Amino acid sequence: MRLTDASIAIRPRSPWEALDLGVLLARRHQRLLMLSWAALTLPVFALLTWLCWHSPPLAMFLFWWLKPAFERLPLYILSQAVFDEPPSLGQALRQWPRLLRVQLLPSLLWRRLSLSRSFNLPVQQLEGLAGPDRQRRLAMLRQGSGTTARWLTLAGVHLEGALWIGATTLFYLMVPHQLEVDWSWRRLIEAANGQWLWVEHLTNAFYALVLVFWEPLYVACGFTLYLNRRTELEAWDLELVLRSLRQRLSGAAPLLLVVAIGLTGLAPDSKAAETAAPFDGARLVHQPLTSQASRQDIKAILEQPPFSNKETLHRWRLDQPEDKPAKPANLSALLEQPWLKALARGMEALLWGAVLALVALVIWRYRSWLRTFVNRRARPSAYRPEAPEQLWGLAVSAHSLPDDIASHAQQLWADNPREALGLLYRGLLSRLLNDYRLPLQESDTEGQVLAKVAALHDPALEAFSQVLTRHWQALAYGHQLPAQALAMQLCNDWRTLFGASGSRP
What we know:
The chain is an all-alpha fold. Among the domains are: 3-241, no CATH class; 390-498, Four Helix Bundle (Hemerythrin (Met), subunit A) (Up-down Bundle), CATH 1.20.120.
């Protein structure tokens, strides 16, 4: 890596400016990056789709999980493009198997969910560090840039989701209007006889296409963030300036040599140099306070308290009460005053009173909620409209029916079975209106009445209603009388459901 051959300006930047540089770098090489990513990932996606055809979510999950393995190819292309000539598409694809040899399993296992993945990848791929060396290197590089790298990943997750949803919506909007009038997702699924797996795989394909545009950009931003951090730590910009200065001065080297030879005659006499005191020897030797004595005094002062407090212990020591400073005598005497104790008890009483008042205020404020969800007393019945007295020309009011409907119907069965069966049916409608408060209307049919009975979730009532309604329809419309044994069974079932008096037992 030669800094002088870099295709970008090497200088310290803020982390967010480094991300902007990554966007510009990805745009400069977008054709190569997108083609290489598509040539690498789309065949893998097609293979996973074929292997997991009956489980589209599994194919999608495996493709998403393999993203760290795919991200090594864009990083290789960008590293070559910044400090050398960018490789061709074929050269880049041939290098990808070699790139997978470096710590592939850690990248797909415990490092897979790292939010700093794009920032950490250059350390293991370009620097080849692993183990404790990698951890120390990352700890130093993340200072000042780790938060930005994590925000980059979080923003990328949301951007992927937004682009994915946008691609799916765009597909729906591209359906011609003539087809959209008589077309819906439900009809499409029903037309395929339930074989709608291709719809999920098509949605997965939209995600694979989104990654073709986004993933090279994500890798480029992490790479430029890594380069910016190394520029700050290793002073790459200062190194470039010094190299440029050396190149400028290399042409003036003969002139500097002539000037140095000319100044040789102005050098001091060697004898005078010998008599001169050495620079690193003792100084101020002829003063009352020499330099050596001042250093000794300073060292002695620093070894004494309060600058130095040395204590040697050969046991574990906790914070003992005797180690704490004692309370002042005047403070202890003040705390023992009777009036102060009385004031403390009064304040305690006031605080407890405030707590009880707050509890009472909360109970009063939410009394309606407590009455609804805590009180076990029956809630007052809401307003219910009066039940109709007639349905379909049948009198269904309570005063139009006898008290013991089952016994009265049993007596009528021998002489007038139609009236007896009608009495049972009218009694059923009356019970549904008055006891169960079913909103029966004049426009309801017998089938709609049975549907409302089924909504009560009472199996015995539902079974009795179906049998009685079926025989009532057979008698009313087909003039078919039920058997005598069935008539007795209907009366007995009525007594079981509603009792002898006609109300629920």
